[in-house]
Structure formats: structure tokens, C-alpha cells
Design a protein that fits this description.
The complex is a heterodimer of chains A (254) and B (255). Chain A contains 9 helices and 7 strands; from the N terminus they run E-E-H-E-E-E-E-E-H-H-H-H-H-H-H-H. With 254 residues, chain A is of the alpha+beta class. In chain A, helix 3 packs antiparallel against helix 6 and helix 6 packs across helix 9. The radius of gyration of chain A is 21 Å and the shape is elongated. Chain A starts with 17 loop residues before the first strand and ends with a helix. Chain B is mostly helical and 255 residues long. Chain B is built from 12 helices and no strands. Classes of the chains: A alpha+beta (254), B mainly alpha (255). Bound molecules: protoporphyrin IX containing FE, iron/sulfur cluster and FE2/S2 (inorganic) cluster. The site of protoporphyrin IX containing FE has 28 residues of chain B, from helix 2, helix 5, helix 7 and helix 9.
């Protein structure tokens, strides 16, 4: 990588690089639009992220460029895109870790809004509704004045670990199965099931979970290519979670 | 007609209790792959006995023909084993083919995805699909031959097949396919079911080690059969079967 030699952080004695961004552009709203690559040059600044570089392009070169950002801190998950061929969060990617030529493309699988902007929200909602990713309680009246039931801190920690998912969609875009089969739930979905399986407040049994992931668009569709695990910006233990879920669901079926 | 049939036909199966079949098929796919991969390990050691000499290979062959149990060789016993392998092979192929890209759109998008991701496990899977597809044909041909003419297995028969019948390129390709497909498959089983916490770096090294070991052994074995096929081409053409050294000596001393 080029950092270290070219970009010494200390003393501001950095040799400035000119970055060239090759961006896949397409506007589905415009019937005349055809997918094409467009290049932009940006002077690299210290500590520059892809988010900053894209803002630079939009402000000074091309106001029509579409891309998504909210938090700029790797929390909201909206800025995921395909960076040099692999999905990742633009706001968490430092340009100093990249070569001077960078290609950017929208995430596959999700509905394209335009250029680098995709509608992950719609997909995620569909997945959540299908897998019912909420705590299922017994049908008793919710009593808000009653104290919440206690939870073992270790278990809470485990649940929290899986709850760190920001629904950025990188895992789905990195999944070979999801590219071929549109109805596949992806690692994000399986991770959610693993999370609710852990939760003692959720009354669902393994049989109930089988109802939502026990088929080829669920856990048995997974071919263990594990692109998901390798790109997840939150470094969630997807490999382990999927394997455990697969084992559990296979036992239900036997 | 059963109500289940009607419910499925009406497209309402999603509304009833989920079938347990996908779980069983997933397990069966893996178990059939495991069986085949382990069988291929054993198979490699048996055929590699030729590296220890013609007598060793002859002994192994006769062992599978029941000679050491019944005092007489029954080649059809080999056919029975082959039939079992064929059954597992067909089951495995039938289940694994579900995962293939089934049209040009799927194939093209997967290939572009693998190319763009530059991701080892994804690329390995593509090779598993290619090698699996090729084995539909090549492995079937080999299995059929073993099923129907088990009596031809032996130092002269197998060597002659390689050299005189010119089948060595066929076996070379089959060797490469099986070794790559089998070891990638075992690696996949490890991450899929067995050691989900284990580092894939490590498992992949192990996998390449296994591939290299069996490839070297396989190539040496293939070479050995080719040499025997060349040295004893007349014997093969005359339909002669190999006689082990001790029997040759016994014959000579009898004379
Ligand atoms: C017609 C022949 C064959 C075809 C079409 C085929 C195809 C495939 C495919 C596509 C996969 C990947 C499945 C997935 O990703 O879920 C696979 C897995 C596997 N194959 Fe084969 N294969 C064949 C023969 C063999 C043979 C001869 C062996 C033994 C050396 C073998 C061993 C394995 C193993 C161990 C796996 C992993 C099983 C799993 O992931 O569930 N296969 N096969
Ligand atoms: S599991 Fe990781 S990659 Fe997938 S949506 Fe959640 S944070 Fe993103
Ligand atoms: S902008 Fe929120 S994660 Fe990048």
C-alpha cells in the first residue's frame, strides 16, 4: 500500500497525490440513460475518506452525482458501495489505503436509485418482515410500568455483539448466492435470526425459526462462500453464526 | 389426491408448515460429498499400490474380489462396490446441481461477481461447479467401465488401458478434477459444518496440502501404470492377466 512512504502523517510533509475516480453512472429514471463510467480527478487531502472525495466531486465538479450518506461515521450503513470491486463503507474507507485509481460502483442486488445510491432500506424491510426480526413475546398485555426482566450481562453482551449490524447491505452484495437468487436472505438475515434465537425474551422456538429460514432461500441456500464475513464493516462473526444456525436448522429437519 | 398435493399445486405451500426436506437434502448433499471424497482417498491408496510393485497391486485387487476370503476371485464383488459408489455419486450430483447457475443471467452475474470480488472462497466455488460439471461425464464413463468389466482391473489390464488403449489423458483429466473438487469440497464441509470458528487461512493451507499430496501420488501412480502398459503391451494385447511372482515361481519349480 502507498501509505507510509508517500503519506507521512507527521509534519504535513506529504507528497500530494491526485486521485482518479472511475464511477459507474446510471440513472434509472432517465429513459435515455445508459450505464457508463465517468472519471473525476481529486487532489488527495490528509485523512481523506471516500465520503470526502465524493463530496468534493459533487460540490466542485458534478452536482448530478448521486450517493448516500447520513452519519459519516460508519454507524448508519447508508454509504455502502462497491469499492474497487468489493463492497465497503465509503465513509470508513481512507483514500490513503487505496491506489490512485479507484473504481466505484453501486451495490448489486438492491434497487438502484441512481449512480452510487441504492435502496437498501426497501430490501431490509422486506427481509425483516419475512423473518419477523423483532422480539416475539407471549400475548400478554404490555405493562410499561413493570420493570424489565433481568438478563445475564454475558448474554446481553452476546446479543449486543450481533446487534451491531448496521444493515449496510455489504454482506448481501458480497454474496455469490444472492447475486444468482434474488430471494436469498443473506448473512444479514441469518445474523438477525441468530440474534433473536439468543434473546430469552423472544418466545420463538427453533421450530418457529425453521419456518422462516429452513429452506433454500434461507440457511440451506447458503453455499458458505463467506464473502459476507470477509467484507462486513462491523466484523460480525458471520461465518460462525451461519454455521451454528445451519446445524440447528438441520437438526430440526432430521 | 392428497391434500398436500393440492396445496402445493395451488401455490399455497408457503402458507402451511415448512417442509423438513430442505434440511435433509442439505445434509445429504454434504454427506454424499463426504463419502465420495473419503472414498476417493481410499481409492487413491489402493490404486497407488502399483508403486509398491505389480504384486502389491494384484494382491489388493484380489482382496476386493474376495480371493482372500473365499479362496477364489469373484470380480462381481467389485461391481457391487462400484454400484454403491454410483448410487452415492448420482445422489450427490442431483443435489449439488441445484446450486449451479441455471441460466445465462445467473452464470454471467456470478462470473462477474467472482472476478470483481477477487475472493478466494468464491473463486474456489466456481471451480467446484466447473469440475463437478465435467465429472458428470468423465466420472460416469469410468464408473460404467468398472461396473461392467471389473475383471479387467489388474497390473496388465489397468496398465494396458492407460497405454495401449490410450486412456491416460482421460485419467489425467479425471485425476485433476477429482483432486481439486474433492479437497475444495472437504474444505467447504469444514467451514460449513465442522469448525466454524477455525481460521479459514489455516483450513485452506491444509486443503492445498491435501491437494498437492494426492496430486503427486496420483501422477506417480498414473506414470507407473503407463510404464507397465508400455512394457507389457504384448501381454495385454494377448488378453493375458498378471500372475503374481510367487505363482510364477511355483509354476517354474513345478516344471
Ligand atoms: C457429477 C459429479 C459431481 C457434481 C456435478 C458435483 C457438484 C458439486 C457442487 C456444485 C458442489 C457445491 C455444492 C454447494 O456449494 O453447496 C459440490 C460439493 C461437494 N462435492 Fe461434488 N460433484 C460431483 C462429484 C463429486 C465427487 C466425485 C466427489 C468426491 C471426490 C465430490 C465431493 C464433494 C464434496 C465433499 C462437496 C462438499 C459438499 C457440500 O458442500 O455440501 N463431488 N459438488
Ligand atoms: S452483517 Fe455486516 S455487512 Fe451485513 S448488513 Fe450487517 S453490518 Fe452490513
Ligand atoms: S455514512 Fe453512515 S455508515 Fe457511512
Amino acid at each position: 500500500m502507498s501509505n507510509g512512504q508517500n503519506n507521512t502523517a507527521s509534519g504535513g510533509k506529504t507528497r500530494q497525490r491526485t486521485l482518479t475516480f472511475h464511477i459507474l453512472r446510471y440513472n434509472p429514471q432517465d429513459p435515455d440513460s445508459k450505464p457508463r463510467m465517468q472519471s473525476y480527478q481529486v487532489e488527495e487531502a490528509e485523512g481523506m475518506t471516500l465520503f470526502l472525495a465524493l463530496s468534493e466531486i459533487r460540490e466542485h465538479q458534478d452536482p448530478t452525482l448521486q450517493y448516500d450518506f447520513v452519519c459519516r461515521a460508519g454507524i448508519c450503513g447508508s454509504c455502502s458501495m462497491v469499492i474497487n470491486g468489493r463492497p465497503g463503507l465509503a465513509c470508513r474507507t481512507l483514500t490513503q489505503d487505496l491506489e490512485t485509481d479507484v473504481t466505484l460502483a453501486p451495490l448489486p442486488v438492491f434497487e438502484l436509485i441512481g449512480d452510487l445510491s441504492v435502496n437498501t432500506g426497501k430490501w431490509m424491510r422486506g427481509m425483516s418482515e419475512r423473518l419477523e426480526t423483532w422480539v416475539h413475546t407471549k400475548e400478554e398485555e404490555v405493562n410499561l410500568s413493570k420493570a424489565e426482566s433481568r438478563m445475564d450481562p454475558e448474554l446481553a453482551e452476546q446479543i449486543y455483539e450481533l446487534d451491531r449490524c448496521v444493515e449496510c447491505g455489504s454482506c448481501v452484495a458480497a454474496c455469490g448466492t444472492a447475486q444468482m437468487r434474488q430471494d436469498f436472505v443473506g448473512a444479514v438475515g441469518m445474523n438477525k435470526i441468530a440474534r433473536f434465537k439468543l434473546d430469552p425474551r423472544d418466545v420463538r422456538t427453533d421450530d418457529d425459526f425453521y419456518e422462516v429460514v429452513g429452506d433454500d432461500s434461507g440457511v440451506f441456500g447458503c453455499m458458505s462462500l463467506l464473502g459476507c464475513h470477509d467484507v462486513c464493516p462491523k466484523e460480525l462473526p458471520l461465518q460462525t453464526q451461519i454455521a451454528f444456525l445451519r446445524r440447528k436448522m438441520a437438526t430440526i429437519g432430521c | 389426491m392428497s391434500s398436500e398435493t393440492l396445496i402445493i399445486q395451488a401455490g399455497l405451500s408457503e402458507r402451511s408448515r415448512k417442509s423438513r426436506l430442505p434440511a435433509r437434502l442439505d445434509l445429504l448433499q454434504s454427506l454424499s460429498g463426504l463419502f465420495l471424497a473419503l472414498f476417493m482417498w481410499g481409492h487413491m491408496f489402493f490404486v497407488a499400490s502399483i508403486l509398491l510393485g505389480k504384486d502389491a497391486m494384484w494382491t489388493i485387487t484380489k482382496f476386493f474380489e474376495g480371493y482372500h476370503f473365499f479362496g477364489k476371485a469373484y470380480p462381481w464383488l467389485v461391481s457391487v462396490v462400484v454400484a454403491v459408489v454410483i448410487a452415492v455419486f448420482v445422489v450427490h450430483a442431483m443435489l449439488a446441481v441445484r446450486k449451479f447457475p441455471i441460466n445465462y443471467r445467473q452464470f454471467r452475474v456470478f462470473r462477474a461477481h467472482a472476478k470483481s470480488m477477487r475472493h478466494g472462497d468464491t473463486t474456489l466455488w466456481m471451480w467446484q461447479v466447473y469440475s463437478g460439471f465435467a465429472m458428470f461425464f468423465l466420472a460416469s464413463a469410468h464408473l460404467y467401465q468398472m461396473l461392467v468389466w471389473p475383471q479387467d482391473i489388474g497390473p496388465f489390464g489397468s496398465g494396458g488401458r492407460m497405454w495401449v488403449d490410450g486412456l491416460w489423458p482421460f485419467y489425467l483429466v479425471l485425476l485433476l478434477l477429482v483432486e481439486f473438487h474433492g479437497s475444495i469440497g472437504l474444505y467447504r464441509l469444514a467451514v460449513k459444518w465442522c469448525w466454524p470458528n477455525c481460521s479459514r487461512e489455516f483450513l485452506k493451507k491444509l486443503k492445498w496440502g491435501i491437494t498437492a499430496f494426492f496430486l503427486v501420488l496420483g501422477l506417480a501412480t498414473l506414470g507407473a501404470y503407463m510404464k507397465i502398459g508400455y512394457d507389457y503391451q504384448e501381454n495385454y494385447k494377448n488378453g493375458e492377466r498378471y500372475t503374481p511372482t510367487w505363482a510364477q515361481q511355483a509354476e517354474e519349480s513345478a516344471k
